[in-house]
């Protein structure tokens, strides 16, 4: 069984409730970032433009570069195949930040601490969903067994879109119901 996230780009409004819930769970409002990030993109030129949103965090990869390159074993895969981080073993060398093609691990300088998505492991052990999934008002995020998510959401799912690295690099445990525009090259990130 491989656990991972499902993201339905066709349902996401870009409201960032997932990011806010993640920031709150990790108590990261003061430092201004969160393990889950929301980005907006545009493709095309006027009058033929299209837009889409991505909601990304650690993809709990099959071949995680952060685990392979961590000198202390602070980054590791648990029995469920999730990539976790042990603060007590971490020496804050930031190697994981430099090798992750998704930019998932983040460094909080004020606390000399690396943070990343742990799929709200402690909450899930208590029977709850990850906070990002629970917070999404459009139900654009799900978490679970990837085979079950594929069965539930069909065959048109992808593991990469034009703004993400090739899935061949690390084997992300991420399934995306994509918008057509997200598969095109020539995108640009937009801020509102």
TrEMBL record:
The keyword Translocase does not apply. GO terms for molecular function: 4 iron, 4 sulfur cluster binding; metal ion binding. Residues 49-80, 81-110 form the 4Fe-4S ferredoxin-type domain. Keywords: 4Fe-4S, Electron transport, Iron, Iron-sulfur, Metal-binding, Repeat, Transport. The keyword Transmembrane helix does not apply. PROSITE patterns: 4FE4S_FER_1, 4FE4S_FER_2. Coiled coil: none annotated. This is 4Fe-4S ferredoxin. It comes from Adlercreutzia equolifaciens subsp. celatus DSM 18785. The lineage of its organism: Bacteria, Bacillati, Actinomycetota, Coriobacteriia, Eggerthellales.
